[in-house]
């Protein structure tokens, strides 16, 4: 398929990398930002590349809120921007108490909002690590996939803390909740 006429913002599907959007154009290649694989340079005539043409799309398909969420997600993933993540209302002002089994030892009390902030920072740092793995030039695709699987398992281990988040879309999602390419 001759794709020399595609522009920035064109949505594409690649059989190996999944869905993506053209973010840059070079003489013989496209820079494509893939949802699960980061930015890749792909030959314009790659036979594994297909344009996604949405059906019944009007200019008003995305609301301003949807656009804002998309921009925040892009900034967070690629710009080191940290979003404000709200703590669930029932936890505000609460404390987490860690009590040892041995009653002669003193327990530890931590404000939930401090603990929650540490969880959110951990999530943000995992996302930056994920971004750096995807963009690493010396790792093979197999190495990247193997490291991504470890990160997915880490997210799965952290799903216990989803109860603290106000918004479900900000939850940790492990292997069972991940979508396949």
UniProtKB/TrEMBL annotation:
Superkingdom of source: Bacteria
Name assigned to this protein: Uncharacterized protein
